Amino acid sequence: MTRTVAVVQARLGSHRFPGKMLAALGEHSLLEWVVTRVGQSDVVDRVVVATTLEPLDDQIVAECGRLGVDVVRGSTNDVLDRFMAALADDQCDTVVRVCADNPFVDASCIAAVIDEHRSTGADYSFNHRPFGGCNYADGFGVEVISRVLLTDLDSRDLSAEHREHVTLAIADGSVKAHVHGCVAPPALARPELRFDVDEPNDLQHLQTLVEFARLHIGSSAAEVVAAEDSYRAAYPS
């Protein structure tokens, strides 16, 4: 039997957009959008938020309590250590990595990457990197990694950068593994579009889309892309 855990990494100490994880998008915080939408996937058995021990992130813990989602705390910069803490008491064999600045992450995208990960026998699969044929719109990013490979990464003498960025050692070839890039279905094959939140202006745009197209926390990725197209048609730059 396979078991899949999704780990959402989130903290409030962003340099470009402090506090963004609890910023509002429509009627929900960004963190609520992410954990709710990840939890909508019927191939994910558990969702856990991995945050830091910084006092500021007490607010993340409180929000997770309100949402009823598991949370673990660990190093600010050693994100890989946080992932291992999230999995410490779980017998999962597959791990989904999701960044909390992708509020429109979609259950169907998660399922697609997991399905390809298993059917290809890959150790690490993804849909968001600039290689492997990936052509999804930015903001639907999903990574799937085997528990065995993640544990192997943790056992290695990795650089601080590699431990901070969790899967970077695989992506840059420092650690060899069977990797697989996922190609988007036609409706989502829009690599020129961005739906992630790095800065306040990004959130402002997503808020405009939510209001313009009446997007809600259950809207599909295809509906999000269609909303962007409709908005651009109505308000050409």
Helix content: 25-40%
- Cα(first) to Cα(last) distance is 51 Å
Placed side by side, the strands forming the largest sheet appear as 5-4-1-6-8-7-9
From the alpha carbons, calculate the radius of gyration and give it in angstroms. Answer: 17 Å
Average pLDDT for all residues: 96
**How much of the sequence is in beta strands?**
15-25%
Secondary structural class: alpha/beta
Poorly predicted spans: none
Overall 3D shape: globular
What is the string of helix and strand elements?
EEEHEHEHEHEEHHHEHH
Count the E strands: 9
Largest sheet: 7 strands, mixed
SS element count, helices? 9
Name its key features:
38% helix; 9 strands; globular; alpha/beta; 237 residues; 9 helices
Could you provide a short overview of the structure?
This protein is of the alpha/beta class and 237 residues long. It is 38% helix and 16% strand. Strand 2 and strand 3 (28-29) form a beta hairpin.
Task: Provide structural commentary.
By secondary structure, the protein is of the alpha/beta class. Helix content is 38%, strand content 16%. It has nine helices and nine strands. The strands form two sheets. A seven-stranded mixed β-sheet has the order 5-4-1-6-8-7-9, with helices on both faces. α8 crosses α9 (221-234). The radius of gyration is 17 Å and the shape is globular.
Give the arrangement of secondary structure elements:
Layout: E1 4-9, E2 24-25, E3 28-29, H1 30-39, E4 46-52, H2 58-67, E5 70-74, H3 79-87, E6 94-99, H4 107-120, E7 124-126, E8 143-146, H5 147-155, H6 160-164, H7 168-171, E9 179-181, H8 200-213, H9 221-234
Parallel strand pairs: 1-4, 1-6, 4-5, 7-9
Antiparallel strand pairs: 2-3, 6-8, 7-8
